[in-house]
Amino acid sequence: PSPICSTSVTSAKIQVNGVHLHYQQTGEGSHAVLLLPGMLGSGQTDFGPQLKSMNKQLFTIVAWDPRGYGQSIPPSRDFPPDFFERDAKDAVDLMQALKFKKFSLLGWSDGGITALIAAAKYPTLIHKLVVWGANASVTQEDVRIYNGIRDVSKWSEKVKKPLEEMYGHDYFAKTCEAWVDGICHFAEKSDGNICQQLLPDIKCPTFIIHGEKDPLVPQAHAEYIHKHIKGSR
């Protein structure tokens, strides 16, 4: 293939589960990888460097915008109690619609939670799993942290700018508040459970990364996930 072709990034939409999901695809390697963005994120905002620099001979890379995020609007984003399961099914069905038989998941933040659920629920489809900044439950301490980011006007300019450019101020502000409400609902359960019971079902090789200075997800979450996914590193 010409070098032009091998490094270009395709941007397209495909209908999955009644919504038109936007994704970007690049590379022509035999190992297919789906990149799953975090809260309010999209393929472009969260994975620009990976789309540009991951090895395109080894990998076929797909970065998606979950429904209601990025360019997968409409619909507007909402947060029913099963929003993570819904994203997991959308993600897996997207990759199947793109004709990938087996693929790996690289997810960060909410995308990490989505990836954990997908790997547990669709074990025959998932090759390998990498998550960072993910959590399997919501504690009262987490609720305090989340409420600290509810008001987007208090966010740093650097983090806020690309999201305001993508969504416009109103949608961005409204969706962030809705996310805080949605994620805090998990803390109302006695164990704050999001997907703890699914972790033992994850059979694929799993790599967990965590930033010591992660302002949103305390490190205990990463340690819990590591402890409960057999053989994870």
UniProtKB/TrEMBL annotation:
<dbReference type="Pfam" id="PF00561">
    <property type="entry name" value="Abhydrolase_1"/>
</dbReference>
<dbReference type="InterPro" id="IPR000073">
    <property type="entry name" value="AB_hydrolase_1"/>
</dbReference>
<feature type="domain" description="AB hydrolase-1">
    <location>
        <begin position="32"/>
        <end position="145"/>
    </location>
</feature>
<protein>
    <submittedName>
        <fullName>BPHL hydrolase</fullName>
    </submittedName>
</protein>
<keyword id="KW-0378">Hydrolase</keyword>
<dbReference type="InterPro" id="IPR029058">
    <property type="entry name" value="AB_hydrolase_fold"/>
</dbReference>
<dbReference type="GO" id="GO:0017171">
    <property type="term" value="F:serine hydrolase activity"/>
</dbReference>
